[in-house]
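Attaching the record inline, Q. Sequence:
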Amino acid sequence: MSSAPSAAPVSPAPETCSRCQRALQGDDRVQAGGKTFCRSCYETLRQQLEQAVQGMSTDIRYPAAALGAVLGGVVGALIWWGFTVVTHFQVGLVAVAIGFLVGQGAVYFSGGKRSRGLQVLAVVTSFVSFVVATYLVNMTSINQLLAKQGEARRYPFPPTSGDMLFFVLSAGFGIMDLVFLAITLWQAWKIPAPLKLPKTEAA
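Structure, as predicted:
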């Protein structure tokens, strides 16, 4: 008794470009973002992306960005200071919010721009905001201690002299303060950083 004829093997469907759906031949293929494109489509898309990324670093409204950075710094400083006033504890980790809010404020108010200039602006603003917040937090703690001791004198804001500024800022200063400052400045530097396109992945 003869056996039934075997079914003819089914050829796999040819791989196609994710953009133009053209069948890919030989080395005419590039992988990007988890998809495969023909080289022509990939070059077109990459050129469009490069133009978009370049546009994010041009025509920057620095006055608006500065306003956003300052507002972010003010909000961050108030959050840290307010936390101290409410809880009567100094938690330096809360200060990290300053760098985040300053960076986000600079990017948002500039219309989504990113550049080295915005990074410098955010870092400088974060540093000044950190210093002001540190003075407010330490001033509050010192004044609370003076009140408990029954003393009438208080440290005001803003400080009335350079010596007063230095004394309040240096009160309880330690290595962790430097760590929190470094994290704050890193956040401010990282958020407005220019975007970089990934390298081409050859298939």
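The helical segments are 39-55, 62-87, 96-109, 116-148, 162-170, 175-190. The CA atoms of residues 83 and 89 lie 8 Å apart.

More tomorrow.
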